[in-house]
Structures are given as C-alpha cells and as structure tokens.
Amino acid sequence: MRVLGVNAVFHDPAAALVVDGEIAAAAEEERFTRRKHGKSPVPFSTWELPERAAAWCLTQAGLTAAELDAVAYSYDPQLAPQPNGDVTNDAWEGLRTLYASRAPSFLRTALPGLDASRVHFVPHHVAHAASAFLAGPFPRSSVLVLDGRGERTSYLAGRQGDDGFEVLATQELPHSLGLLYEEVTQHLGFQRSSDEYKVMAMVSYGRPAFLDAFRQAVRTTDDGGFRVHPLDLAEFVPPVRNGERWRQEHADLAATMQARLEEVLLELARWLHAQTGDAVLTMAGGVALNCVANSFLADRGPFERIWVQPAAGDAGTALGAALHVASQHGDDVRPMGTAALGRGWSAEELCAWLQKAALPHERPDDVAGAAAEVIAENGVVAWFQGRSEYGPRALGHRSLLANPTHADNLNRLNDIKGREQFRPVAPMVLLERATDLFEGPLPSPYMLFTHRVRPEWRDRIPAVVHVDGTARIQTVDRADEPLVARLLEAVERRTGVPVVVNTSLNTAGRPMVDDPRDALECFGSAPIDALAIGPYLVRRSALGARVAA
Ligand SMILES: [Fe+2]
Predict the structure, then answer these.
(1) How far is CA 494 from CA 370, 491, 505, 539, in A?
(2) Å from CA of 489 to ligand 1 middle
(3) Where are the beta strands (DSSP E) in 359-490?
(4) Mean pLDDT throughout 328-342?
C-alpha cells in the first residue's frame, strides 16, 4: 500500500512516503522553506503542514494524492487533553488538539485529491517507536522513546517481538526528561527545543557540580517510569541573558544535566532489559539525539547493540507513522538502509545550474579525488552529492569537508558557518579503519555516538578531537557510500590520515543546504575553497578571489 507519513504537531514538520513497505522518500519541510525547524513549536502553528515536503514525496514516487491508500499523522488528538470549551486554557493546549483533529481537512486542502477519510492518527510515541524498531535493521528489539512530550506522555518503553509491538511502560506529563533538558537549554541562553546539542557541546567544559540536587529531583520509579520534580535552575546559576557569555557555573549546569540524564537512562534501560532480555535496543525521540548519553548507554547499559533512528527528533515520526500504518495493514516493511532519502539531482541538472550561475567549473575524472586534493592542501570543500539526508546530521551528502590535521580548522569551520567557537566538528572515517583510531560502538553511520580517540591519534587529527578526548564519528561503509569511501582513501593517500572533517553544509541559523541553489548561495556567501557538486568542481581560485587559509 501507499502511505504518506506526516509530522506537523510540534516542530520539525516532515513527510515520508512508504510504498509496499519500502521507504521511497522522506524530507523535512525546513529544507524547502529554509526556515530552521520549519515552524515554532506553539499550539497556534499546529495547522501548518509539511506541504512542500509532502508534495515532493509524491512527485518523487510519481503518485498523486488521490492514489494514496493512507496518510499517517503522527499525533492522536483523541489521546490529547481535550479543549473542553475554552481553547485558551493551559497555554492554548486545546487549540493544538483542535487543529490536530482537523488535520484531515487541512491535508485535503494542502494535497488536492486526497480522500480525507484515509487519514489515520498514530499516537506520537508509537510513531517515534516505529521509526526505531521498524526502520532499524533488527527484526526484534527493545525500544525506548525518550522525548519532550507527546499527547500526554514524555516517554515510552516497549518491545517489538514476534507478535508485534507491545508497550511496557510510559511516563505521563509533566514528568519529562526532554522538557527538563529544554529548560536547561533556555537557562543557558540558547533556544529551547532547538539548541539542545549546544548544551551537549558545553558539557565537557564543566563538571556535574549540582548532581546531588538533580538526583533528588529526577528519580526513576519501580514501574519503568520516572519523576521530575520542579527545579529552580537560578538557584544554581543565574540564566544567561541575551548576548552574555556563559561562565564556568553554566558549563557545570550543563554537565550536571547531562550526568543525571545518563544515570536515569541507564536505570530505564536496565528496567527494560530486565523485562525483555533482548540483545538489541532501538531508540528514538529528541533525547535520543544525545550522542554522549547514547555512548554511555552503549558502554554501561545491558544491551549488546543499540540502533538509533537518525531522524530521532519529531521529523522522524513522519517516517515512523507511515511504517506503522503500512505494517498494521500487513505490508512487509523493510528497514532503512540509508538516511539519504531526500532530494537529488542528475549531473545534467547540476550542470545547468552551474551554467545559469555563470560559474567556471571543471569535470574531473573523479570528483572524490579532486576534492581530496583540495582537502590535502588544507582547503575547505562544500560537498553536495546524491540525495539529501533525513534528520539533523550531514552524512556525506550535504557536508563541509576539511583537513583534520590542522587544529585551527575547527575555528575556521566555525567562522565559515558563523557559529560559536566551542562547537565541535566531527570526523568521517572508513568503517574498516575506525578501530585503528577510535574506541566505541561500531558501526556508527549516523553520528549518534561519541568515541574515544586513541591517544596516538589525538595529535594527528586535532581539529576533530573534543576537549575530553572524544569525537562524534561517522563510519563510512564503502558498500553504502562508495563515493565518500573513495574520497577518504584519496585523502589518506595524500596526507597519511584516513579521516576527513565533516560538518553540515549550512551557515548558522539556517537549515542544511538541500537544493543546488542553496549550495550555490552558501558557497557564494562563505569563504569555502571549492564546491564539489555532483561530478563538478568549482574552485574559488578560478573565480579570481583566493581565500586565505
Ligand atoms: Fe516527539
């Protein structure tokens, strides 16, 4: 059957299309509208749909909305707080429920020809869970959904077994690990529900100085849930106001939040494992993007393997909801083999874009070799190849690449992107070489774990080693990513180092580059030495304005 998945309720609106159990397309609305996270996570925006992402998914598969068998909407308004007459109560929560319940008619407007009776509401955390256990490569797994919130809950523990999916525990709001992490994010002067990864980056600059208080406030219960009692964060350190620099105590607060999160996740994972005895854990929900906590679980937890949905945030519920509905209707759902589920362009189309922009370009024998040469000479390459990534990480399709052997390339990339200097960049490495350089869970194709850099390599790849000696690696399997594998081999031949710095191709505050125009605009507005777009290479030096390295 043909199922369109839609996420629209909170933020990161996205669409995904599953045809006869196979994932045909998945994309976030922000990549089309160029507004980061697509919209504000407020009840007033619940009516906004991923219109362009959904329309593209249909086009990609050559379908019309009338040909869809089902639309899977990743929120069930029946489970949510009901408006009870006044939608302004409880911070307009009733408005969210009302808008969500009207989604079928909104969708019919956005996708002309759609039969509104084919819209299925999938509970938010079932959609997250399905994005893990159905999209992951394991037929059976224990499942953790670690989220800010769904309809009435913030957390789900379950199991996908031979008889289908079973929910083993949930946690009702207001108790929420994700919302507490968001509160800390806001207190540290960042945007909640968006900048949590910046808090994670701050962690290694602090120590968990307030852990006793956090242990009192955040506790697990015997039934697989937890309680989060209110914490006055200003008691630990005043909030970071607009434009202020953060102090040591702020980093300590980040480190405390992270440490308690890890302890609680370990207890939740142990509880779940005691129920299931499974070898594999799959995870989704915004908190599952916390790669430091994921590594802690992989290292200390009871499961042998952990697989995390790369679009673990709400965008991934579009895919999860679609897979869930397809599976419920008896389709043989196949796992995702790649996160490259977004838009792509042919060489001819890319050539037309370059000609239109009147950019001098060359077509080398192998663009991977040509880009490797630029990187070996310490140039920065904008790398636009194949279909764009679903989820927040650049995985070698819309990436900025650089040489890891120069420590100052960290600051240089942060400058190019116009973002904070404490933000790390990450290494890509061939899967078969990863154990030579890094310790930690392998494979790691989606950058969802951190790894310890072996001591003998720390000085050789200083740009990607975090202050605590770790790195958030992406392993590249040559069977899945032959072009990126060739690039890594070519870089090693020239530099002796089998690693390339990889960070997302965008500038601060903007979504990742998705289409050729975005790529040209990004290249044109930032001191990037070369743009490798499909088989073509554009050198800034050929434009007559060389960038100082
Ligand atoms: Fe969620």
Answers:
(1) 11, 5, 24, 19
(2) 38
(3) 381-384, 398-402, 426-430, 438-439, 451-453, 470-471, 474-476
(4) 96
- Burial of residue 158 (CB within 10 Å: 0-12, 13-18, 19+) is buried
Query: Ligand 1 is a single-atom ion; what residues have CB below 5 A from it?
Result: 147, 314
Ligand 1 centre to CA of 480 (Å) is 29
Q: Which two tokens stand for residue 334?
A: 């196949």
Q: Is the dihedral of CA 536, 541, 545, 548 positive or negative?
A: positive
pLDDT tops 80 at residue 238:
yes
Task: Convert the pLDDT of each residue in 490-541 to its tens digit.
Answer: 999 999 999 999 999 998 889 999 999 999 999 999 999 999 999 999 999 9
Q: How far is the CA of 317 from the centre of ligand 1 (A)?
A: 7
pLDDT of the residue at 479? 95
CA distance 517 to 511: 13
Ligand 1 center from residue 205 Cα (angstroms):
29
Q: Which of 113, 109, 124 is nearest to 68 (CA)?
A: 113
347-377 pLDDT per residue, tens: 999 999 999 999 999 999 999 999 999 999 9
Structure tokens at 272: 């779940």
Collapsed DSSP state (helix, strand, coil) of residue 337: coil
* Residue 188 alpha carbon to ligand 1 centre in Å: 22
Confidence of residue 318 (pLDDT cuts 50, 70, 90): very high
pTM above 0.90, yes or no: yes
Residue 28 near residue 14 (C-beta atoms within 8 A):
yes
Would you state the pLDDT for residue 512?
A: 96
Decide if pLDDT at 549 tops 70: no
In whole angstroms, give the CA distance from residue 21 to residue 341.
Answer: 15
Tokens read off for 284: 């989704």
Is 11 a known active-site residue?
A: yes
Residue 548 above 70 pLDDT? no
Residues contacting residue 105 through CB under 8 Å, at least 6 positions apart: 116
Edge to edge, what strands does the sheet with 381-384 contain? 474-476, 426-430, 499-504, 398-402, 381-384, 530-533, 536-539
- Distance between CA 346 and CA 49 in Å, rounded? 28
Given the residues 11, 187, 397, 466, select the one marked as catalytic.
11
